[in-house]
Write a structure and sequence with these properties.
seven-stranded mixed β-sheet; 11 strands; mainly beta
């Protein structure tokens, strides 16, 4: 069972990236998919979230209007489209799959992908 992020890179300010988060060993269709980021010296923060069926999304104010979270349950993958990137978006980006069924909580994390925004 694992989540694997990919697609991070070094990009210039104003550029775009589309990291992906691929799941194996379980099916994401019943999980909320969250994207977090952690910059050096800072706490991990939630930047985007998408519900299991994709009908509901959440974005942090700092990325609203620039980032778009999506999912393809058939491919067992979530994506984070990042446009108009800024140096302050530089961080390791992690995906999380989480669901709660009564008192039970299932949660998986990926190991992260580095996004660096710099000229």
């Amino acid at each position: 069972v694992q989540l694997v992020e990919s697609g991070g890179a070094l990009v210039q300010p104003g550029g775009s990236l589309r990291p992906s988060c691929a799941a194996s060993g379980f099916t994401i269709s019943t999980y909320t998919m969250n994207w977090y980021r952690q910059a050096p010296g800072k706490e991990r923060e939630l930047v985007a979230s998408i519900s299991s069926a994709g009908g509901s999304t959440y974005y942090a104010n700092s990325v609203k209007g620039r980032f778009t979270v999506s999912r393809d349950n058939a491919k067992n993958t979530s994506y984070l489209q990042m446009n108009s990137l800024k140096p302050e978006d530089t961080a390791v980006y992690y995906c999380q799959a989480v669901r709660s069924t009564g008192p039970r909580r299932d949660e998986y994390w990926g190991r992260g992908t580095q996004v660096t925004v710099s000229s």
